[in-house]
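Collaborator request, handled under Task 6.
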Amino acid sequence: MPERLLIPSAATAPAPLAAGAVHCRLAGQSMGTSWSLQLMLAPHGPSQHQVLQAVQAQLELVIAQMSTWQPDSLLSRYNQGAAGSWHALPPPLLCVLEAALTMAADSDGAFDPTVGPLVDLWGFGPGPGRGDDLPTAAQVRQARARCGWRRIQLDRAARRVLQAGDACLDLSGIAKGYAVDLVAQALEVLGCTSYLVEIGGELRGLGIKPDGHPWYVQLERPPGRAGDALLLALHGLAVATSGDYRRCFEHQGRRYAHTIDPRSGEPLRQPPVSVTVLHRQCMVADALATALTVLGVQQGLAFARRRNIAAVFLHEGAHGLQERMTPALAAMLD
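Structure tokens returned to the collaborator:
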């Protein structure tokens, strides 16, 4: 398969590897998905056990604060809170919620952290599922009445958020990317200067491998779909992908992807097959991939071009799978 190489410009050159550095691999399960880590460990640096403890601590922090699947998480407590109650936000949760609301405003609601009731209604959330039938129009209207990012009132000075009444936050479109960033930051605090961290397909990398090359990753494509391999050199960069093939169901011959359009209250009717975004922060790349997917190919490309976002869209065309790159991404091709 032909290969195309993406080489982003880096603010700093990769640090040289310490003499005797060892290539290590770690992996596990968390946040309802898998995670993996490759890194170069210096002889006098942290041990594998210390690295594993640091990774697990960050993942547990995200679950404890942002999981909608854990009934005792801070987010779940907010969702179950009484109308008019204020809920304290520790710095990580405040950071992610602020970023989510900023993305919601910038995308005019294409990204909406209050879409949880609709996600549950269509059977993609932690609820009991949708059963054999599709939601009725009345059920969709009822769920939509609980949504709307403008309902979320933050008191930034006091680091708290108001439960307006039956409001439901769902940060699944951004929290996984944030977890990648947290793990990366924890590794750098330990002194790691060469790593590749991945959680559920979202990645962030830094530094070089023993052969002197950066961490190359192949950008995700739908299973079974051929095409030129697009390789990315991850040094000081993160990548996130939103794909309609990841979670879906079929009903009466129609395929329903897991991405919900907050504006209609329904799964996207003709979503891009996938959208991949490159950014310095995986949290931002994660949220952007969702927003661009909801906006669709034409509006999404225009949105990304105006903001100089590096993104690639895969969509079904007249002659099969087609690829559309933004200028910011095309400029990285070597």
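The cover message to the collaborator said: "The mean pLDDT is 89. Residues 35 and 329 are 26 Å apart (CA to CA). Please let us know whether this matches your experimental observations."
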